[in-house]
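user: Please supply your own:

assistant:
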Amino acid sequence: MCRFLVYKGTDEILLSKLILEPTHSILTQSYDSRLRLDTRRPHNGDGFGIGYYTSPALGPAPCLFTSTTPAWNCVNLSRLAAKTTSALIFAHVRASTSGALADANCHPFRHRALMFMHNGSVAAWPAVKRPLAASLADEWFLGVQGGTDSEWAFATFLDCLQRGGADPSGELPRGGYGHAVLREALVGTVRRINGLVEAVPEGRLLRGEGRRSLLNFAVSDGWSVVCTRYVSSRTDEAASLYWSSGTSWRDEGEGRFVMERRDKGADVVLVASEPLTFERDNWVTVPTNSTLTIHKQTVMIHPIIDEYYNHSPSYVRKSEFAKSKGLVSSAPGVTEVLTPAAEDESGAES
């Protein structure tokens, strides 16, 4: 039930133009998530984090700033965002369902040049955590600092990336690992989590959840960005995810921003759990059970074809499960369901 935001542009942008100033900025979403459907937990106040890539002269690793202070009450965030620019930015506001309120549990997570964040939850997490940890190489197992399912998902991604032939701890290749390599490792992460959840005995599944994981991931190596919008179900909707692209992110004053399109170029690409503006024609819904890749400012959508993928473009999924976790918005492209949402008993956190 968290929210995240990705910015990738040909030019650097002031962080405040994304995080603070828009009418429905991610900071605003932390205390006034108007599209939120989970009224039992209306705030994303359990910490936040921003990550951004800096000048190559400073090395390939992104800079992270995380805090357990609610984003709306952190004066240092306002000071930093007003004086910091970057061409590739991750931002995340957190609403935990269990676990400690600690900096180590705040997204984004980082390993060398790689940055990762998650919105959602791993199904049957208490039963999955031990076998997932056992599936990892020692380096990734020992590298986990916090207690969230999200950070363990990042460790799984690093393990998949290494098994695919890349070296997450080595020197970053010129041009990055390649968008196809990142995408395959991220889809491999989804597959491994699904396999472990499928192996959980019926008696250890959590009531109201079953085997349904919500896995909206975002990862970058500083060159490419890959995101997933995914649910391990053939009938349920995934957590919401939108994207927007254009030639500039134009500030029209008083918190109003518009994605300007002077030509067919995509000098600016945004990906967000909730749109930053209420201009419906600015935002496109990422299809359920798909990846979104940004490489050289080109946006590519690929389906994640597995047992939960539906090939029919007219198939309508139900959103009640994601709604029960506050992970679907009422913005364009979301299916409405009239049945009441189930109570959240996942015990996982994102």
Summary: The chain has a mean pLDDT of 85. Residues 179-198 form the longest helix (20 residues). The CA atoms of residues 121 and 314 lie 27 Å apart. Helices lie at 16-19, 26-31, 75-81, 125-134, 138-143, 149-163, 179-198, 320-324.
